[in-house]
Amino acid sequence: MKLEFQHAGIYCRDIEESLAFYEDVLGCRLLFRADAMEGDKPLKMAWVKGLGMAFELLETEDKASCDAAAQDSNHIALRVDDLDAFVAHLEDKGVALEAGPLDPPLEFDRPLAEEDSDLFVKHGDAGTQLRIMFFRGPGGERFEVLQDNIAPLP
């Protein structure tokens, strides 16, 4: 059986605001829009593609789903080749940083297989060298952005 990532679903308070954010700030492009139902309530959807993935933006009448998702500690991680330039880009777009940039230690508790060197590589006792920061999208979704010393971005 083969399994691969297909999309991330993101609840939004205002689909127009979120769509503008994903297009203007993150450089995604609109694939399509659709209207559906979530139970007995209307559901607005917009699918966007970028950053090597797809996002399903979802707006419901009941904002409790969006509020609950915004309180979640999970995040979507994006990799950049120049964190300072990305931070400046966010500032230009009026997006506030939630935390960072930080240089967290990432120590490994076991040796890594060579096949995993695209994600993490060991550099001395501290493991992979990372710089990270966090920000939120207009629906409260949390993003981590990281710059590492693993390999150049394609």
Through-space gap between termini: 28 Å
Hey, roughly how much beta strand do the residues contain? 35-45%
Rg estimate, integer Å: 17 Å
Give the number of DSSP strands.
Answer: 8
In DSSP terms (H or I, runs of 4 or more residues), the helix count works out at 3
Quickly give the CATH architecture of the largest domain: Roll
Describe the main β-sheet briefly: 4 strands, mixed
Strand order of the largest sheet: 1-4-3-2
CATH topology name of the largest domain: 2,3-Dihydroxybiphenyl 1,2-Dioxygenase, domain 1
Which parts are unreliable, with pLDDT below 50 for 5 consecutive residues or more? none
For the record, what CATH class of the largest domain applies? Alpha Beta
Which sequence of SSEs, written as H and E, runs from N to C? EHEEEHEHEEE
The helical percent reads 10-25%
CATH superfamily of the largest domain: 2,3-Dihydroxybiphenyl 1,2-Dioxygenase, domain 1
**Overall structural domain count:** 2
Mean pLDDT reading: 80
Shape: globular
In terms of structural class, how would the helical and strand content be classed? alpha/beta
